[in-house]
Amino acid sequence: MLPKMKVLACSLIALSVVIIFHSIKVLSLYASNAPGPGFFPFLLGIALLCLSTVLLFSASSNLDEAPLWPHKSWVRPLQAVILFILFALAFEHIGCIATIFAFSFIWQYLIEHRKVLYNIIVSFATSIFVYVLFVVLLKVPFPMGIFSR
Amino acid sequence: MNSIQGLLNGFSNVVTPTNLSFTFIGCLLGTIIGVLPGLGPVATMALLLPLTYKISSPTTTVVMMAGIYYGAMYGGSTTSILLNIPGEAASVITCIDGHEMAKQGKAGPALGIAAIGSFIAGTISVIGLTFVAPPLAEIALKFGPAEYFSLATLGLVLATYLISGKSVIKGFIMVIFGLFLGTIGLDPVSGSMRFTLDIPALYGGIDFVTLAMGFFGIAEMLTNLEKQESIQVIATKIGRIYPTLKEWADSLMAILRGSFVGFFLGILPGGGGVMASLLSYALEKRLSRHPERFGKGAIEGVAAPESANNAGATSSFIPLLTLGIPGNTSIAMIFAVLLIAGIQPGPFLIVEHPEVFWSVIASMYIGNVMLLALNLPLIGLWVQLLKIPYSLLATIISLLCLIGVYSVQNNIFDVIFMIIFGVVGYLLRKFDFEAGPLLLAFVLGPICERSLVRALMISEGKISVFLTRPISAVMLSITAILVVLSVIDSIKRSKSQNM
């Protein structure tokens, strides 16, 4: 297996090639004797290519690198990301209050392993806090979903 | 308008119920987040960015954000002294002697000298800011696009060189990444769409709030979620807070030296509080007649770095207010707040918006007094804050990010982009890439590109324009030297690691 940093450096080199290619072919470097829309991104692409190449060659070749996520430490961040995505998908359909309550409850239950009664109290308090701050005080027109009249 | 007259006008603007309240809210929030480990001033400012759209006066918004920044420097010492955990990066060095003092039953004087030193240093620094900023802005007015491009480039490279911890090359890559993200969307010069992948939500470019909340709010929270341990509050007796005459005598010169070191380092890009506190600690140790006391509870070891980080935090406003160049990530947030309010930071700020310029400075005088009042008598209350479980904070932080970013444009795509940036930021942190340089570059990107294009248009495409103008040539030479040194250093380090 390749060292992780080398894989990352190769990905960055690929990205820089895409930026350079796009700047030359799709955008233009020079237009009517002035720098075109691709000029600055082209310079950035070149700089990224050079720096990524230095990173590739300076990255450690040690194959026995420490794991990125020791002791299954990836579980809670992954759970959080899934919960964020579900929040984004549900927010406009179910409405802000129900989504905030559900998010807070699931977070405390799944990620923090708290007791149900504690979860209900925290979720209720959090929902009221966010509702008062954004809807009442800041007058943000959030979708109310199942609580709309 | 001279400095004294401007400052008096600034005071008359700040001493209104609204502005005083927001200065106080900023100082209070700054102190709280300084006390709470795992939530820094940048993340807090990112969380509050959506609220700034709802505040009508730019002065009010900026004085609050400034309060958060220098307030965090005050609050950061509390956890360093009591728990040996720095509340924010600039208080790392305070742990050494501060916590030793706490173990010896002298937590009170340590906290007291940290607050008093911070007050003295903050006040000295803001006096310096009052008199240094206007003439510097006048000099900057003479800068053309070539000088501005070179200055922005030097600012980015120097800041990255100083704030990047383990690898400067990674810092530079983040700079390029940030500059690239800034090019996405409509090109203001040609009107062409760049790198939008035909996604309509990207036509207007990436929103700063979305990017900042993703890379700081979400990414920081995901990183903290990996840690299972909870913080235990040590039952340390705080006791008397006010230092004795002997402790005063030991600390006074350290506070003054720390103030000046902090002030001058804060002006440099990348300087700010962290560098200032480290250097002033080293300086005190070197100048001390009893260097062996350092690390064993020397009060100068608390007074000097705490004074320096506050002085540095205040003086780091100088490049922002006079040159329009944010020197560190927290200042980049304030830069963005000004842009959101339709104000371009830089030399014209003092001419076009003197009320904002002088009000920010005046608010710092008032904020320093507020912070002293908040920190000394209420220290016991801040210690109680440490008992709030991180699980509860994490839920609130996540919701503030998700709801906050949605509230800016009522667009769910912003939330999705923020989650993506958060995950990318989290993964990059795993590889020791720091997000600070990316955010600085994203903010400075448009200035860099605009100045580059203008300079080339004026010179009819001659790149030599950057080298024939003396100020530009000097700045670009320093930039080139720093980049080359970093590359050589990186290669040397890899060779020694692979041997």
Low-confidence stretches of chain A: none
Quaternary status of these chains?
A: heterodimer
Q: Per the principal axes of the C-alpha atoms, what is the gross shape of chain B?
A: globular
- Determine the N-to-C terminus distance of chain A: 58 Å
The biggest beta sheet of chain B is recorded as: 2 strands, antiparallel
Main interface: chain pair and counts: A-B, 65 and 60 residues
Q: Tally the helices of chain A.
A: 5
Quote the beta fraction of chain A. under 5%
Instruction: Kindly state the number of beta strands of chain A.
Output: 2
What order do the strands of the largest sheet of chain A run in, or round the barrel if closed?
A: 1-2
Using only CA atoms, what is the Rg of chain B?
A: 22 Å
Mean pLDDT of chain B: 83
Structure class of chain B = mainly alpha
Shape of chain A: flat
Largest sheet of chain A: 2 strands, antiparallel
Keywords:
heterodimer, A: 149 residues, mainly alpha, two-stranded antiparallel sheet, 5 helices, 2 strands, 3% strand, flat, B: 499 residues, two-stranded antiparallel ribbon
List the helices and strands and how they pair.
The complex is a heterodimer of chains A (149) and B (499).
Chain A: H1 4-25, E1 30-31, E2 34-35, H2 39-58, H3 75-94, H4 96-111, H5 116-137
Chain B: H1 3-14, H2 17-35, H3 41-52, H4 58-83, H5 94-103, H6 107-140, H7 145-163, H8 168-183, E1 185-186, E2 193-194, H9 208-226, H10 245-267, H11 272-287, H12 300-315, H13 317-323, H14 329-340, H15 349-352, H16 354-375, H17 379-385, H18 390-409, H19 412-430, H20 436-458, H21 465-468, H22 470-498
Summarize the structure.
Chain A has 149 residues and is mostly helical. Helices cover 67% and strands 3% of the residues of chain A.
